[in-house]
Amino acid sequence: MAKVDLNLMAVLEAIFDEGTTSRAADVLHLSQSAVSHALNRLRGMYDDPLFVRQGHRMVPTPLTRRMIETVKNSLSALRGTVENAHVFEPGQHEQLFRVSQRDAVETILLAPIMEILQRDAPGIHISSTQFEPDDIAAQLQQGQIDIGLELQRTMPSDIVSQHLLSETLVIVGRKDHPYFNGKQTVEAFLEFPQVLVTPFKGESGWVDQALASQGLRRNVSLRCLNFTSVIHVLLQTDNLSIMPRIYAEKQACWYPMASAEMPFSAPPLELFLYWHQRQDSDLANRWLREQIVEVMAEGGLARRI
C-alpha cells in the first residue's frame, strides 16, 4: 500500500477550493513554489494532471472531481479529531465504565449517579464490581476497571488518587436492642454477639485491631459478605455490628434501626477515588469522576469526620 502524505491532500483541496496555486499558498501559509512542488508530486502519484490551467484558473480534471469529496470528507474527519480532542458532550457519549466499589459505597453512590446519567448522559453505563483491595492497582493498570473507590492504601506511582470521604464508625442494631437502652460502654458492647462485614478473606477490620490494642476481643458470631444481609440479621437477633455512619443513617430511613457512638477509639474510614494516570486527562473518565465527587459533596459526605 502506497504511503500518502496528508499534506499533499490538503494542497489538492486548497487548489480545488481557491482555483489558483497562489491563493492556495496563501490559505496554507506556504510559498507558491512549495504548492507547485506538492502539485507535481500529486500528479505523479495519480498519473493525472489533476488541474489544467484555463486563463488565470486551475480547472480540476474529471479524476479530481470524482475524488475531491472523499478527500474533503477525510480531511474534515481528521481535523475534527483535533478540534474535538478537548470537547466532551456527555449527552452524546456512549461508554461502559467499570467501577470497583464496596457494598456500602455502592448503596450510597449508585442511585444519585444513575439519576445524573439518566438525565445528562444516557449513553454512559456503569458496571459495578468488587476486587480485593490489594488488587485494585493491578486492575487499573491492566484496564480491567476504569475507576476504583477503595479505602486508603499505598498505591504505585502510576495510580492517581483523590480523597473523597472521612467517615466515623457507629454501633448499629435493631431499634429496641437492649444495648441502646443501657450504659453504652465497651463492656456492654462486648456482651453481645457481633457481625463482621467483609467480602475479603483475612480482612479483620479496624474495630478488631482497635480492640486488640486494648487487650479486648469481641464475639464475632457471623462474618458475612455485605451490609444488606447484616441489616436483616440485626433486625431478628441480638447481634450488633459496626458500620460507617453514612450507611447506618441511610438504612435507618428504611428499617427500624438504631445507632450509637463507638465506646472506644477507632480511626475513621478514609475513602479514596483511584484511577490510572493514562485516564487522568481522558474527558469522559474525568467527567464521571467529577460527578462522583459532586455526589459525595452534595450529600454532605465529603471529608466529614
Helix content: 40-55%
| Spatial extent as radius of gyration | 32 Å
The name CATH uses for the topology of the largest domain is D-Maltodextrin-Binding Protein, domain 2
CATH superfamily of the largest domain: Periplasmic binding protein-like II
The major sheet is characterized as: 5 strands, mixed
CATH class of the largest domain: Alpha Beta
Q: Helices and strands, in N-to-C order? A: HHHEEHEHEHEEEHEHEHEHEEH
Query: What is the correct CATH architecture of the largest domain?
Result: 3-Layer(aba) Sandwich
Helical element count? 11
Q: Structurally, how many domains make up the residues?
A: 3
Distance between the termini: 64 Å
Q: Judging from the principal axes of the Cα atoms, what is the shape?
A: rod-shaped
Sheet with most strands: strand arrangement: 4-3-5-12-6
The overall pLDDT average reads 87
Strand content: 15-25%
What is the strand tally? 12
Poorly predicted parts: 300-305
